[in-house]
Write a structure and sequence with these properties.
The chain has helices spanning 12-23, 54-64, 83-101, 139-154, 178-187, 207-218, 238-249, 275-281, 289-298; strands at 3-7, 27-32, 43-48, 68-71, 110-114, 160-165, 168-169, 192-195, 201-202, 205-206, 227-230, 236-237, 254-257, 269-270. By secondary structure, the chain is an alpha/beta fold. It has a seven-stranded parallel sheet with strand order 3-2-1-4-5-6-11, with helices on one face. Strands 12-9-14 form a three-stranded mixed sheet.
Length: 299
């Protein structure tokens, strides 16, 4: 049986990916920064491990002997308060994992590293493809650019695929993120929601679309050595999201701008081209944003 190791397996994306890979016939093993959980559907075993502990990471890799690895573990909240922790986790953690994997390079079939569309930065019009040069506008984007360079150095002997997901959401995502925050307010019938930058537009996908893309990329040798966008190719304004939530929920509410939530380095528009990834794995299973919002509102 194919064995796949997921770092960050008990997080938002990891839980969906573990279940999807288990259904596809993988034996899925997880790494979790916190206490190991045995209740995540799809996981056959979970190891508690801090990627800063390289000897521990090496021991786990030697024991598991994975065929595939998906590296999801990261601090993904752009406004995370501890910048040092973000840099340490997102860059050094990636370096340690790839270093440990070099010991079983001959066995590995693919290593998918989750980067981010935040590497593209701000102020660019049109649709962004993989040839767009990185120009990160915040520390999170900088850490992801650096992690991609780590993949090019430490992963030179490994079958690495870099995935650049644009914004995605779904049931179970932290309310620190925009759409879950809006949905949470509506489910509580709150009359007012405080937001930051309102003049933004994002290329939103459903988490189920993203994990399906990740699972298919793992089995696509032509993707090895490449960076690929995971996106819908359509940007939706925040105003459009708010209108959809009002319509689907039947609940009206006011929006108040809280200066504490406004970020000067906010990326105003992010829209990606899915042309490359669809040329590699076929059409993505796009789920309309209204369907995703209805799923989240009804959860």
């Amino acid at each position: 049986m194919t064995t796949t190791l997921i770092t960050g397996a008990t997080g938002f994306t990891g839980r969906y990916l573990a279940a999807a890979l288990e259904q596809a016939g993988h034996a899925v093993v997880g790494l979790s920064h916190g206490p190991a959980e045995s209740t995540v559907p799809g996981l056959t075993r979970t190891f508690a491990c801090d990627l800063a502990d390289l000897p521990r990471v090496r021991d786990i890799i030697e024991e598991v002997k994975p065929d595939h690895v998906v590296h999801l573990a990261a601090i993904a909240f752009v406004a995370h308060g501890d910048v040092e922790e973000m840099y340490r986790t997102n860059i050094v953690g990636t370096r340690h994992l790839l270093t440990a994997l070099q010991g079983c390079a001959g066995r590995l079939r693919s290593v998918l590293v989750a980067s981010s569309a935040n590497i593209y930065g701000n102020g660019r019009g049109g649709t962004l493809d993989e040839d767009t040069p990185p120009a990160p506008a915040n520390d999170y984007g900088v850490t992801k650019v650096a992690a991609e360079y780590v993949c090019g150095v430490a992963g030179a002997q490994l079958p690495v695929i870099v995935a650049r997901p644009f914004n995605y959401t779904g049931v179970g995502q932290s309310t620190s993120f925009l759409i879950p925050k809006i949905v949470d307010h509506v489910r509580r019938r709150a009359p007012v929601i405080e937001l930051g930058n309102l003049d933004v537009a994002r290329d939103f996908s459903d988490v189920r679309t993203v994990v399906d893309a990740y699972a298919r990329l793992l089995g696509t040798p032509a993707a090895i050595g490449r960076a690929v966008n995971v996106c819908s190719g359509r940007a939706t304004s925040l105003a459009g999201v708010l209108d959809s939530v009002r319509r689907l929920s039947g609940h009206d509410f006011q929006v108040s701008v809280n200066p504490a939530f406004v970020r000067a380095d906010e990326v105003k528009t992010l829209c990606g081209s899915p042309m490359l990834i669809e040329s590699l794995i076929g059409p993505l299973t796009h789920i309309p944003l209204d369907d995703t919002l209805a799923w989240m509102l009804g959860a």
